[in-house]
Amino acid sequence: MLSTQDGKFADDSMDLDEGPDVVAGHSQTSRRFDPSIAQRGRNIGLDSIRGICATSIAVYHFIAWKGLVLTSVGTFGVYIFFILSALTMFMVYGQTFSTNIARGDLLDFFQNRAARILPLLLVMSAIAAWNYNNEGVLAKAVLTGSGVFSLGLPGHLSASTGAWSLGIEIVFYIAFPVLALMLASVSLRAVVVVTIAAIVAQQVNLSLLPGEAAGVITRWVYYTVPLTFAPFFALGILAHRIKLRASIANFAGAMVGFLIICAYSSVIPFDMFRSSVSYVLLTGISFITVTLAFNSIVPPRLVRWSVLGGELSYSIYLTHWIAYFSVQKVFEHAPKILLPIEFVAFIALTLGISYATYFLIEKPCRDRFRAKR
């Protein structure tokens, strides 16, 4: 999957961001599962986090749309993807842009990014436009499906559930080649200082958001801008610099970290617009979780499922709302006692749709339109 020849990368394959399949000193292979996977080393710890995050966001939306909001898993499950994005971009392309930004490398990078995220995003935007059929949705679908919405306010312009985060990702991709060049010779201490400064700027920005009187939707529009999420990308860069001895214990630690994120809101409810302590604490836990996963060894019995989760995570993230509304129509008048059955049906349909869209849309388009050099 990942190979380096004259600075070119042979393939990209993971989630919201172009993920590495081999990480020096941290790769893992097994002969117990599909040879098409087993013969390639890949950081399966990151695969596991991708799959778990995407699934947890789907579960979050199910229970939130039923009236129970657990802010920590819904928000920081997404924000972990930003950390993963910066981490994997530097793993895959950091060396390519470490000394110069060659025109060919730059074109290949953006072509690969577009091939990776735009086809499925375009399809989901079109489905959303057809499904919602309200004023402005067609214009939003065009802006979202083309990726142009990233240049505005993604939280306002996104046409499909979860698409706003792709707007933030695209801004990071635009800046990435310059960041990689600038940070190539920067010390770890300097990265830490920049990360702290980004967190401070983020919290100052959040304190200036419109008050509760303006409404949650208005605050959300001003909240979903690159400045809010810059610290997560900075933490991804920092995680890339931290090398630990890979172990199963680190994998267990990453799972515990994610469980803490999931459970946090049920123990300590907080307003993400105003609760700086909870926000920064969960940011730190998210960073630790990704760093441990990056430096982990996944138990052999979980390898196949981790890889599958990583591969399907983007599709799960973008398509689960279709599964929800489809199941909702069937159980619309069902008694509450059938809610567990509705949940199981939702998960099953989510996995089925994501599996189909991955193999029918996401993977073929990625393979067809990616750079050939």
Your description of this structure?
By secondary structure, the protein is an all-alpha fold. It has one domain. It has 14 helices and 2 strands. It has helices at 35-38, 44-65, 71-93, 103-132, 137-146, 154-157, 164-183, 188-207, 216-223, 226-241, 248-267, 276-294, 300-330, 339-369; strands at 4-5, 8-9. The chain has a two-stranded antiparallel ribbon. Helix 4 packs antiparallel against helix 5 (137-146), helix 11 (248-267) packs antiparallel against helix 12 (276-294) and helix 13 packs across helix 14 (339-369). The longest helix is centred in the last third of the chain and has 31 residues, at 300-330.
Total helices: the number is: 14
Taking the alpha carbons of the first and last residues, their distance comes to 14 Å
Beta-strand percentage range: under 5%
Number of beta strands: 2
Element order, helices and strands? EEHHHHHHHHHHHHHH
Number of domains: 1
Integer average pLDDT: 88
Helix share of residues? Answer: 55-70%
Spans with pLDDT under 50 lasting ≥5 residues?
A: 1-27, 29-40
Shape, per Cα inertia axes: globular
**Strands in their spatial order, largest beta sheet:** 1-2
What is the strand and helix layout of this fold?
Blueprint: E1 4-5, E2 8-9, H1 35-38, H2 44-65, H3 71-93, H4 103-132, H5 137-146, H6 154-157, H7 164-183, H8 188-207, H9 216-223, H10 226-241, H11 248-267, H12 276-294, H13 300-330, H14 339-369
Antiparallel strand pairs: 1-2
Question: In summary, what is this structure?
Answer:
The chain has one domain. The chain has 14 helices and 2 strands. The chain has helices at residues 35-38, 44-65, 71-93, 103-132, 137-146, 154-157, 164-183, 188-207, 216-223, 226-241, 248-267, 276-294, 300-330, 339-369; strands at 4-5, 8-9.
